[in-house]
Amino acid sequence: MPGTHIRSALEKAAGVSSITFTCHFDTWGFIYKHAHEAGNFNGPKVVDEQPDGFVAVPVSGPTLVAVLETLWREQRNKYRSAGNRAIAKRIYDVTSTTVEAIDLEAAERGTPIPPVVIDAKHGTADPQP
Asked: Coil, strand or helix: which one is 24?
């Protein structure tokens, strides 16, 4: 049964109309590989390639929910390699921290929703314990 943190992140993610993932192409590939079979996952129609192998990928709230659920399970899957679990945990931690920081009321008034940035040199948020 999911804990309070994941439930809170999922509920907030469900209220997001759109959010952008900014990460290395390989990181997005990991997310896509693991989340694309989730019921709510609707792969992006556009992937904006940026310098240094980075991509900016806009996703919907339902897709964000699918990503969070998938990564939460993946990081706990004892049948996956330690490396796979570590990648899933890092991406989950950054994504859930970013989602938890969203002020949905401010977003409804036009305040932009910050992107999920998965790269320490580009200002990745510190994950919550």
From this structure: strand
Strand 116-118 relative to strand 48-49, pairing: unpaired
> How far, rounded to the nearest angstrom, does the alpha carbon of residue 116 sit from its chain's CA centroid?
6
Where does residue 60 fall: left (phi above 0), alpha (psi -120 to 50 degrees), or beta otherwise? Answer: beta
Rg (alpha carbons) of the chain, rounded to whole number? 14
Residue 116: φ, ψ to 5°: -90, 110
Measured at the alpha carbon of residue 65, what is the angle toward residues 59 and 71, in degrees to the nearest 5? 100
**Residue 23 DSSP label:** E
Return all residues near 115 (Cβ < 8 A) that are at least 6 apart.
19, 20, 21, 22, 56, 98
Name residue, tokens 């790269």: 119
Query: Which tokens hold the place of 79?
Result: 């049948």
Q: What is the pTM of this model?
A: 0.87
Strand partners, 78: none
Which amino acid, 21? F
Condensed to tens digits (0 to 9), the pLDDT of residues 66-100 reads 999 999 999 999 999 999 999 999 999 999 999 99
d(CA 49, CA 57): 9
